[in-house]
Amino acid sequence: MKTHIFPAIRLTAICFIFFCGLYTLIVWGFAQLVPNKGKGETFTANNKTYYTNIAQKFNQDKYFWSRPSAVDYNAAGAGGSNKGPSNPDYLAQVQARIDSFMVHNPGIKKADIPADIVTASGSGLDPDISIQAAKAQAQRIASIRQIPVTAIEEVITKNTKQPLLGLFGPASINVLQLNLALDALANNK
After folding, report:
1. What values do phi and psi take at 174, rounded to 5?
2. What are residue 132's phi and psi, to 5 degrees?
3. Phi and psi of 33, rounded to 5°?
4. What transmembrane ranges does the database entry give (predicted)?
5. Rounded CA separation 53/112 (Å)
6. For the packed helices 131-145 and 149-158, what is the interaxial angle rounded to 10 degrees?
């Protein structure tokens, strides 16, 4: 018994020291090297500080809509709905989002609605939408703001984030930054 218990106690102590102490210090040290010291991506506009890496709720027709959130954009309770793609409640919820999107964007066909604008992400806090989701909303925003669609598309292009090294992940757009650029465009009009 002594041949097993003492090595187990030693291993437990070593793991405790490494994972609770050294590993934590290493991660904290690397966080000090990145912008904002690991406290999230922030920027200031209109005398307000915004977190760009957490989704914001935009559902007014004059703005680009955010990706739906299963946690109602509450960063304290991030998570998905845990409902599978064949769950009747989930399918009804997605269908309601599709119907709402089509009512607010009458020129869009159901087949042209990007999935990311009617389905929530795994965290429920995805701050980005696809280029297709932004372009699907351009006509609605142009009509409401009385701005040419080409100006809206130019804002989309200027705010597009390309994949990491041009390879990893799709191109995307941060909805908060896109809507702030949209307000700046309207103010300069």
Report:
1. -75, 120
2. -60, -40
3. -85, -15
4. 12-31
5. 27
6. 140
pLDDT tens string 132-162: 999 999 999 999 999 899 999 999 999 998 8
* pLDDT tens sequence across 46-72: 787 777 788 888 888 899 998 888 888
Q: Is 49 helix (H, G, I), strand (E, B) or coil?
A: strand
Q: Partners of 43 in the beta sheet?
A: 50
> Are 90 and 81 contacting, i.e. CB atoms less than 8 angstroms apart?
yes
* Dist. CA 127–CA 53, nearest whole Å: 6
Pair (44, 61) in one structural domain = yes
Which of 153, 157, 160, 119 minimizes the C-alpha distance to 136?
A: 153
Number of domains the chain contains:
2
Domain that holds residue 12: 1-39
Q: How many CB atoms lie within 10 A of CB 179?
A: 21
Total residue count of the chain as it appears in this document = 189
